[in-house]
Amino acid sequence: MTTMRSTPSSASGSLPPRIRNCVLQAFALCSLVFIVVATQIPSSFLLDTPSIFRFSKRSTTDKFEHMFATKTKYWDQREGMNINNDPAVEGAILTFPGLADMNDQTPHQSKLELIQTQLVVRHGIRYPTGGNIKEINNLLEKLKPYQDSLPTWMKNYALPYNMSVAGELAVAGKHEISKLGTRARSKSGHEKPVIYLKEKYRITHTHITRTRDSAIAFVGSFFENPEDVEYIEYPKDKDVLLRFFDQCARYQREVKKNQTAQLQLHDFQKSSVLAKIALWLKYSLGLMQESIEFSSNDLMAVQSACA
């Protein structure tokens, strides 16, 4: 969260034109949002499989068919129109009355003073957790009797990591957070690393190792003297800042430890949508003639291995 303060400036013009410009600007922005949404809606992710595996566009019998998940496929937006760089779209938008001079009403950066920045960042790319690794290995064992039918790349497939790095920050994650630190520094108006001062900066992470490693990666690109940085880490059972849910008795009682709070998850595992995904996986691995069946745990293992 970044707070900016603008220096006072005089206002001019009568009331009606200002109201008119605001209405026109709002209309133009709503039109832009509509265009972006319309061009980014993905098609069915089963385009390369036979039609019997595709989800029906008209089906409304399965309540899970149009739901989203917290872990889902990231669609490749390069196949669609880049709304941000399309001259025709930009030109059309700027023809709206009152929008062309909108930038003139925005305070120049030189008139702004940075007051405070608050940044909450999730850890960088990590290795699968121990539970995920165990699930993936169980699936590989399940596939061994069918190796002759599997695609070539799957015949001798093995995980490139083991339990020794379970849940730890990966090298790619360190690079990811380091680049974030560089961008954050640039957004704050600093081209070069800044001097760390205890009175000015506070760096906090949880007790989990990958969050500390992420903080170190961020600090390394943001500050000129990363060795002087003091990291704040609260004990596992007293971290009300970053892991407040651990201290919330109601959350622990009514959500985390309450099986009835996960009814939708259990229903989804028995839904026709998940059955279609299992069938698609069986087809993709060349196992349609085999007796193997994939469970919801198997599908989650595939997701963990490919994420």
UniProtKB/TrEMBL annotation:
<dbReference type="GO" id="GO:0034417">
    <property type="term" value="F:bisphosphoglycerate 3-phosphatase activity"/>
</dbReference>
<comment type="similarity">
    <text>Belongs to the histidine acid phosphatase family. MINPP1 subfamily.</text>
</comment>
<protein>
    <recommendedName>
        <fullName>Multiple inositol polyphosphate phosphatase 1</fullName>
        <ecNumber>3.1.3.62</ecNumber>
        <ecNumber>3.1.3.80</ecNumber>
    </recommendedName>
</protein>
<keyword id="KW-0732">Signal</keyword>
<dbReference type="InterPro" id="IPR029033">
    <property type="entry name" value="His_PPase_superfam"/>
</dbReference>
<dbReference type="GO" id="GO:0052745">
    <property type="term" value="F:inositol phosphate phosphatase activity"/>
</dbReference>
<dbReference type="Pfam" id="PF00328">
    <property type="entry name" value="His_Phos_2"/>
</dbReference>
<keyword id="KW-0472">Membrane</keyword>
<dbReference type="InterPro" id="IPR000560">
    <property type="entry name" value="His_Pase_clade-2"/>
</dbReference>
<keyword id="KW-0378">Hydrolase</keyword>
<dbReference type="GO" id="GO:0016020">
    <property type="term" value="C:membrane"/>
</dbReference>
<dbReference type="GO" id="GO:0003993">
    <property type="term" value="F:acid phosphatase activity"/>
</dbReference>
